[in-house]
Amino acid sequence: MKLRTVILASALVVATGSALVVGQQQAAEAPASSRPALTRPAVAGRHGLVTTGHPIASSAGLQILLKGGNAFDAAAAVGAMAALGEPEMNGIGGNGFMTVFHKASGKVWSLSMAGAAPKAIVPAEMSAESLNAGMKAGIVPGNLGGYLSALERFGTMTIAEVFAPAIDYAERGYPIDPMLALSISRGRNNLAKYPTTAKIFLPNGEPIKAGELYRNPDYAATLRQLVEAEQQAKTRGATRSAAIQAAFDRFYKGDIAQEFERFFKANGGVLTAADLAAYAPKWTEPLHTTYRGHDVYSNPATSRGGFEVLMGANLIEPVELKAAGPGSPATLHAVIESIKISKADIYRYVADPAFATVPTMGLLSREFATTRRALFNPARAMAYPPPGTPSGAPATMPRADGPAFDEAYDPEQHTTSFSIVDRFGNVVGCTPTLGGLFGSNVVVGNTGLLLNNGMRLGSTSPYPADLNYVGAGKIPVLNNSPVIVLKDGTPAFVFGTPGGETIGQTQFQVLLNLIDFGMPVQAAIEAPRLVLEAEPNFYKPGAAITVRVESRVAAKTIEALKAMGHTVEVLPGWGSLGHMQVIRIDAKTGTMTAGADPRRTGYAMGY
């Protein structure tokens, strides 16, 4: 990059061949840590912390830690309970990703809890509507299998122990919060289409209201079936591992799978017991990069959010963000341009590795970041660029057999995330989802489980020429990508967020808040955010980009971004961009601090 100096109304930006140095002419917006009060208190602990998207999910995880369980035991309890606290966002009928640090081995692992599209799906027979909701929108649910896999591999407790809190709440009910009540009211028309769904969320034909009891006895019965399978196996002399496998098999190969097939066959769906039987959670090496002396880990394909966080870090590392300050025009401009570049490459190359060659090493290489950084103009917003050519990129892209779907789709943001650290030093970050609001809107038969809408546009591409176009047996792409950061081989942070296509963007900004600006966890969460939206979508080079910012971003900063050529939309209030859950671990003192996002119903607990 050539040496150049550009003087802006609000910032002085100097670019050199080796680094981008950003200096201010005026004070940036005050960091969130300087506010007199935060809307959530940070929660400190010595023995264990749980921060989730809902208080009852955090309570379930804390119960397990207090009983002597570890982070993996607690994760299964949280996952089962989160389906009740935020049923519009996630459940064991959904899909997701987990990133974990296993203290005994000192290793970070990625767990894909993502199922595949039914083998009987015919793209030519699908429409935008049937991809996004209804009987044919769902893919094999992976979350339940993922929770059981983590419990079996690294946990210590039984299924009966970890599912007990969720079974109790599902049977007895609990008074729902206004956010869930609003979601049920918003989704009323779609929920009413399916009697099995309406029975749970629209009892007597009316949406459950805030403060009224939400019960799901069919869900409790399904969890009890899994406990029963475990206990029967133990009675036969099975090991702990084999007993958990028996529960897994009952769901994916036994009578529960048969209920899935019966229900969808009777109602025009195509998901079969054979589809469920083919599912297996996948443990893999995580994606990894270094950022300012930290090791940053997240999930590989079929997640694209992990790529976005790590590639964004590679692109922005030469920028002297600390000198510019959080919330300054120069910092936000660098963040925006890094997001554009990384998304252009990710939406081109990331897909199910069983169906595509994903150039993972090339996308994460420093050489590729240097090449792509040449697009960055410190003074001016770039157009949404075409993808680059990383090492290992496929020479040709196969065209699928099927129609083009509506390219201007709704980027759903209905997901949850949770982070856990235990007294043994284990760390779990998990981001499960149903996809859209209430997923496919279909509760499967007598299981009490909402099924995801995993084939929705966004998770699949509307263009047949794209690698991520819908296909039989193909795993659609998620942005779900919880992050673990190590410093000198020791966990320093774990965090994750919901937000659909904004997940990677939000996590990228929180990474910068924590490392570059040294914000306390709650301040890092509550600091104003921005996200990019693309018209018609991020799959298309040249798409029109709108930067949506929370109204707490300084007005002078917004005007400076507009002067650089950014199209900016200011959101009212907090804007509800993501819902971050963060835990910081202090290696020197052994203390931990958890934060939860006030943008939704996040809550941290510990002891």
Structural description of this entry:
This protein is α+β, with helices and mostly antiparallel strands and 607 residues long. It has two domains: 4-41 and 305-409 and 504-600, Serum Albumin, Chain A, Domain 1; 51-283 and 412-435, no CATH class. Helix content is 34%, strand content 18%. It has 20 helices and 23 strands. Strands 5, 6, 7, 10, 13, 14, 15 and 23 form an eight-stranded antiparallel sheet that branches. Strands 4-22-21-17-16-12-11 form a seven-stranded antiparallel sheet. The radius of gyration is 23 Å and the shape is globular. The termini are far apart. The model is unreliable at 1-37 (pLDDT under 50).
Major β-sheet profile: 8 strands, antiparallel
Task: Determine the N-to-C terminus distance.
Answer: 51 Å
Low-confidence stretches: 1-37
Radius of gyration, in Å, reads 23 Å
Average pLDDT rating: 92
Which range best describes the helical content: under 10%, 10-25%, 25-40%, 40-55%, 55-70% or over 70%? 25-40%
What can be said about this structure in brief?
The chain has 607 residues and is an alpha+beta fold.
SSE blueprint and pairings:
Elements: E1 4-7, E2 11-15, E3 20-24, E4 43-45, E5 49-52, H1 55-66, H2 71-85, E6 95-102, E7 107-113, H3 128-132, H4 143-154, H5 159-172, E8 174-175, H6 178-186, H7 188-191, H8 195-201, E9 213-214, H9 217-235, H10 240-253, H11 255-266, H12 273-277, E10 282-284, E11 287-291, E12 294-298, H13 305-316, H14 321-324, H15 329-349, H16 360-364, H17 366-373, E13 414-415, E14 418-421, E15 427-435, E16 483-487, E17 490-496, H18 503-515, H19 521-526, E18 530-535, E19 544-550, H20 555-563, E20 567-571, E21 581-585, E22 592-596, E23 603-606
Parallel strand pairs: 19-20
Antiparallel strand pairs: 1-2, 2-3, 4-22, 5-14, 5-23, 6-7, 6-15, 7-10, 8-9, 11-12, 12-16, 13-15, 14-15, 16-17, 17-21, 18-19, 21-22
